[in-house]
Specification:
Helix content is about 35%, strand content about 5%. The longest helix has 20 residues. Strands 1-6 form a two-stranded parallel ribbon. A two-stranded antiparallel ribbon has the order 2-3. It has a two-stranded antiparallel sheet with strand order 4-5. It is built from 10 helices and 6 strands. The protein is mostly helical and about 325 residues long. The chain is globular, with a radius of gyration of 20 Å. It has a single domain, classed as Di-copper center containing domain from catechol oxidase (di-copper center containing domain from catechol oxidase). It binds 2-acetamido-2-deoxy-beta-D-glucopyranose (NAG) (5 copies) and copper (II) ion. GO terms for molecular function: metal ion binding; oxidoreductase activity. InterPro entries: Di-copper_centre_dom_sf (IPR008922), Tyrosinase/Hemocyanin (IPR050316), Tyrosinase_Cu-bd (IPR002227). Keywords: Copper, Metal-binding, Signal. This is Tyrosinase copper-binding domain-containing protein.
Length: about 325
């Protein structure tokens, strides 16, 4: 055998091995981390906020902004479409990788099981809002010029603005006093991180509603139930978590400005992974739904390429279907 062809074979073998997932990262529920692990994650996020932007978009100043601005720019292509879950899964993975590679963090992305808090009737007292070992609490009780889910809160059925508390800047925890450069909504304006807890959305994130979501079949009804509005009126897991926290998290464009976004979406991703694992032969590679919000859009397929505008490579949906497939390598515990 000639040397060049041997090299080709060796590199194919090496590539196949590197794509093999032998030690998946263990993504844990927030409250199962010890205080040191919680701090390490929050410190890594603060680190990302202090690193300089790679300059993908005007207006992004930090590496943290790079993530938020990517989501903001792509919002109309990645929500209310068949690739909604796939895109967010991939986005979270880049976030997790970046915290590790650029901020020296050694952990796995934590998820937030809000059902534990809702079912106990103690949303406000969730350890995830702890000022010292969490993300800080509700916004101050004051009006702040922030934009709602579609830059217009009143357009959401079931939304009771009167039930809202807070609304102003978050005043404790690691992100108090942090100045966001991207958002609110589609804007790029310096502002504080806001939250506005709203119990009128909590029905979307109960343990029962997670069960009801998992019971959907096929993928088409599952993804519609999970994403919720505007496919269906009222609140589901996706919208319930976003608008239950409210403020920046309540805006479909700029929500990654609140680091809770990643813990919330990891929970949604875990629900999808659980749904897939019920019968992976049948469900692992099920994907459907329109590939854009345009009228008569074609159906999304496994070959549909997820846009990442430089934050990461653009990859086909197929690559992110299996969380232990090799391109991705993690699991939920
Ligand atoms: C989330 O919490 C609910 C309510 O306690 C529980 O039934 C469910 O098993 C939990 N799920 C995960 C993935 O932790
Ligand atoms: C907000 O929604 C209401 C009710 O759907 C609508 O009348 C109003 O024009 C919207 N405002 C903006 C700024 O989009
Ligand atoms: C935020 O700023 C205020 C006023 O400067 C200060 O009192 C407070 O300690 C700061 N909070 C944090 C968490 O840095
Ligand atoms: C899983 O799905 C495959 C393919 O559709 C099917 O043949 C099989 O019976 C399913 N297994 C179970 C346990 O439902
Ligand atoms: C969508 O498809 C329908 C039925 O084929 C057609 O009548 C309509 O003109 C199409 N709309 C657009 C915007 O392409
Ligand atoms: Cu999103």
């Amino acid at each position: 055998m000639k040397l060049p062809s041997l090299l080709v074979i060796l590199s194919i073998v090496a590539l196949a091995c590197s794509r093999h997932c032998t030690q998946p990262r263990q993504r844990q529920e927030w409250r199962t981390l010890n205080d040191g692990q919680k701090r390490a994650y929050l410190d890594a996020v603060v680190c990302l906020q202090s690193l300089k932007s790679n300059g993908y978009y005007d207006g992004a100043k930090s590496r943290f902004d790079d993530f938020q601005v990517t989501h903001q720019a792509l919002t109309d292509e990645i929500h209310h479409v068949g690739q909604f879950l796939a895109w967010h899964r991939y986005f979270l993975n880049i976030w997790e990788d970046t915290l590790r590679s650029e901020c020296g963090w050694h952990g796995s992305l934590p998820y937030w099981n809000w059902s534990i808090d809702i079912d106990a009737g103690k949303f406000d007292q969730s350890p995830i809002f702890d000022p010292h070992t969490g993300f800080g609490g509700n916004g101050a009780d004051e009006a702040y010029p922030t934009a709602g889910f579609f830059n217009n809160l009143t357009s959401l059925p079931g939304w009771e603005l009167s039930a809202q508390t807070g609304g102003g800047c978050v005043t404790d925890g690691p992100f108090a006093n942090y100045t966001l450069n991207i958002g609110p909504g589609t804007l790029k304006r310096k502002h504080c991180l806001t939250r506005a807890f709203n119990p009128s959305t909590f029905g979307g994130i109960t343990g029962q509603n997670v069960k009801d979501t998992l019971a959907q079949y096929p993928f088409e009804t599952f993804r519609i139930k999970l994403e919720g509005f505007p496919h269906i009126a009222g609140f589901e897991t996706h919208t319930g978590g976003h608008l239950g926290v409210g403020g920046e998290m309540g805006n479909v464009y700029s929500s990654p400005g609140d680091a809770l976004f990643y813990a919330h979406h990891a929970m949604l991703d875990s629900i999808w992974a659980k749904w897939q694992s019920v019968n992976s032969t049948d469900r692992m590679y099920q994907i459907s739904g329109p590939s854009s919000v345009n009228v008569n859009a074609s159906q999304v397929t496994l070959d549909f390429v997820l846009p990442m505008t430089g934050l990461g490579d653009n990859v086909p949906v197929r690559n992110v279907m299996d969380i232990k497939g090799g391109f991705l390598c993690y699991t939920y515990v």
